[in-house]
Amino acid sequence: MDFSLDQETAALRDRVRAFIEEAVIPREGEVARDLGRLEGVLGELQREARAWGLFLPQMPRELGGLGLS
Protein backbone atom coordinates (compact mmCIF):
# COMPACT_ATOMS: atom_id res chain seq x y z
CA MET A 1 0.00 0.00 0.00
CA ASP A 2 1.37 3.41 -0.98
CA PHE A 3 0.62 6.18 1.51
CA SER A 4 2.76 8.85 -0.17
CA LEU A 5 1.23 12.22 -0.90
CA ASP A 6 0.84 13.69 -4.34
CA GLN A 7 2.71 16.96 -5.00
CA GLU A 8 -0.32 19.20 -4.50
CA THR A 9 -1.21 17.65 -1.13
CA ALA A 10 2.42 17.70 0.03
CA ALA A 11 2.64 21.41 -0.90
CA LEU A 12 -0.55 22.15 1.05
CA ARG A 13 0.81 20.23 4.05
CA ASP A 14 4.00 22.29 3.91
CA ARG A 15 2.05 25.59 3.71
CA VAL A 16 -0.10 24.59 6.69
CA ARG A 17 2.99 23.59 8.68
CA ALA A 18 4.69 26.91 7.86
CA PHE A 19 1.57 28.87 8.84
CA ILE A 20 1.34 27.08 12.19
CA GLU A 21 5.05 27.60 12.89
CA GLU A 22 5.24 31.21 11.71
CA ALA A 23 1.83 32.65 12.60
CA VAL A 24 0.04 30.51 15.21
CA ILE A 25 2.72 29.26 17.61
CA PRO A 26 4.23 32.72 18.17
CA ARG A 27 0.79 33.97 19.34
CA GLU A 28 0.19 31.16 21.86
CA GLY A 29 1.99 32.91 24.71
CA GLU A 30 0.01 36.10 24.19
CA VAL A 31 -3.28 34.27 24.64
CA ALA A 32 -1.95 32.14 27.51
CA ARG A 33 -1.03 35.31 29.42
CA ASP A 34 -4.36 37.02 28.74
CA LEU A 35 -7.38 34.94 27.68
CA GLY A 36 -9.21 38.18 27.02
CA ARG A 37 -7.06 38.49 23.87
CA LEU A 38 -8.33 35.19 22.46
CA GLU A 39 -11.09 36.61 20.28
CA GLY A 40 -8.86 39.34 18.84
CA VAL A 41 -5.99 36.95 18.15
CA LEU A 42 -8.35 34.47 16.48
CA GLY A 43 -9.66 37.19 14.20
CA GLU A 44 -6.14 38.24 13.27
CA LEU A 45 -5.12 34.63 12.60
CA GLN A 46 -8.19 34.12 10.43
CA ARG A 47 -7.19 37.12 8.32
CA GLU A 48 -3.65 35.75 8.07
CA ALA A 49 -4.97 32.31 7.09
CA ARG A 50 -6.94 33.98 4.27
CA ALA A 51 -3.77 35.76 3.11
CA TRP A 52 -1.90 32.44 3.13
CA GLY A 53 -4.73 30.83 1.14
CA LEU A 54 -5.54 28.42 3.96
CA PHE A 55 -8.81 29.69 5.42
CA LEU A 56 -11.81 27.33 5.43
CA PRO A 57 -10.22 24.46 3.50
CA GLN A 58 -13.41 22.38 3.71
CA MET A 59 -15.60 25.05 2.12
CA PRO A 60 -16.33 25.17 -1.63
CA ARG A 61 -14.02 27.36 -3.70
CA GLU A 62 -16.90 29.64 -4.69
CA LEU A 63 -17.33 30.50 -0.98
CA GLY A 64 -13.65 31.27 -0.50
CA GLY A 65 -12.49 27.84 0.66
CA LEU A 66 -10.16 25.28 -0.84
CA GLY A 67 -12.89 22.82 -1.76
CA LEU A 68 -11.34 19.95 0.20
CA SER A 69 -13.44 17.07 1.49
Description of the structure:
The chain is mainly α and about 70 residues long. It has one domain (about 5-65). It contains 2 helices and no strands. It has helices at about 5-35, 40-50. Helix 1 (about 5-35) packs antiparallel against helix 2. The protein is globular, with a radius of gyration of 15 Å. The protein starts with 6 loop residues before the first helix and ends in an 18-residue tail after the last helix. The mean pLDDT is about 95.
What's the average pLDDT? 94
Low-confidence stretches: none
Tally of separate helices: 2
Shape: globular
What level of helicity do the residues show? 55-70%
Note the gap between the termini: 22 Å
Rg over alpha carbons: 15 Å
Q: How many domains is the backbone divided into?
A: 1
SSE succession: HH
Q: How many beta strands in the DSSP annotation? A: 0
Taken as a percent bin, the fraction of beta residues is under 5%
Summarize the main sheet. Answer: none
Helix and strand content put the structural class at: mainly alpha
List the helices and strands and how they pair.
Blueprint: H1 7-33, H2 38-51
